[in-house]
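Question (not urgent): is this output format expected?
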Amino acid sequence: MKQQFQTPICRKWLIRGALVLIAGLAPVGCATPDGPSLPRRHAISAANPHAARAGLAMLRAGGSAVDAAIAAQAVLSLVEPQSSGIGGGAFMLHYARRTRHIDAYDGRETAPAGAGPELFLGPDKKPLKFYDAVIGGRSVGTPGVLRMLELAHGTHGKLPWARLFTPAIKLAENGFNISPRLHYFIGRAKGLKRYGAARRYFFTQDGKPKPVGTRLVNSSYAATLRMIAKQGADGMYRGPLARKIVEAVQNAAPNPGSLSLADLKNYRAVNRKALCRPYRQWRVCTMPPPTSGGVTTLQILGMLESFDLSALKPGSVRAVHLISEASRLAYADRAAYIADTDFIAVPVEGLLGRNYLAARAGLISAASSMGKALPGAPGRRADEKPPRRRADENPPGIKHGEIPPISDAIEFPSTSHLTVVDDDGNTVSMTTSVENIFGSRLMVGGFMLNNQLTDFSFRPEIDGRKVANRVQPGKRPRSSMSPTIVLDGDGKLVLALGSPGGSRIIGYVARALIATLDWRLGLADAFALPNHVNRNGPTELENNTALKAIAPGLEALGHEIRLRTLTTGLHGVRATPRGYDAAADPRREGVALGD
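Got this back:
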């Protein structure tokens, strides 16, 4: 693919590169009209300079992409605790250049054995208010990140496990300065002062967020990582730290949870089969359920294959309209069908079938918006009327009693993404999260515990039908995380990327893929494009961008428009003949580094 260079974007990245150099890092070279100076050996893009530097150090030591991802995640837990950490979960794709095989590692949290379908119902049997459910132990799922990273390292690691935690241990002991972004979220996180450990760590004695530039030292986290470095993931899932986690969750008054030592001991990460489907001349690979991100992203792309997007201008009325209409249809299917496939029969093949997606695409009109889309029926033509069935009967391919008409799960954009390519061309695309800002607000061992159980539907039944994404013991809540790797027709790496953003992740990733594949933009330019998302409702346009000018045109087609802040955190690496085009989203504090 021919790379297009945009000088204004380049200037912005040169400024960021200068700041990174001041911090002692080695930034990826910026593209210029005469050609880019790009890393050719390895590259990493992560949401914080400290994390990117830790990953780069592992790559320079001959480490693998998985080694670098582990080192980066250990640092992200420290410097970006509002977004991800070892107390949360993650999904990772790994591409092996030699075999051209992609592994899909599932480190999603699981519901404790003591959690049942009515977990988030109050005494009146009505759903709790969101923050009444989030803050405390009730929302904490069994963490999955470390077990997943350990599983991946067992197959793809090159450096010793213990070495991977050295950068994070040193940074925790020596301290790091609070960034403007971290300071902002400390002040914004409702309930962060409720529990002592987080209150003492993030706030001054008079209860104000510690100022930007304050040196944070986290000796507790350093001790945690030393234990994990020595004992492996067992250092967290068994023994003294496991007991501290359980005590914190079960004693989190007034909102305790049921997480137990048995839940931690029995947690297993899973290597699932990646979802790979053709998109024009490429092959797009992503995660299967329990995340809805992979299926829904592939559905959007599959429907848009019917349209010549390359002939459209990015951010034009027609481009935003078509992407929004495909998104409506895909999000409608997402709400109806997708949950943890270990518990629910999800018709993945039907949802991604070529004929099904072509029929769904036939519902898209260039002249007007369809408004709220209805879920389709995989296995039938999208325009065919469904047969009569009882009110409590489910669509074809789903077990009786398992399909909801809607989903009320709430997802927030407190997530992170990192992408790595190592010296051998092996690639990691990993999206990682604690769910809400600072998760459950419970801090143990110097890190935050997740609130991922609130990604389940709060209502176990709707109109007498069991909701697919309801809480069940051992079940993984539905996610929208969408780590993605794109290959060419020969199975060679084209690009890898992903983003945070709650349920909007899907729209962000789909738009970035279209920008790089159809519009042939370099990653920095693609990531900097104004965001627009439709989740089968209003068409959301990123406020204070050029998209505001097309709002009247979209409204004329029948779109309900909402201007709002849409903060992506896209991080990716693209393979080019000149080297690796790596980029980090300018909306966050991340950087891309490489040699």
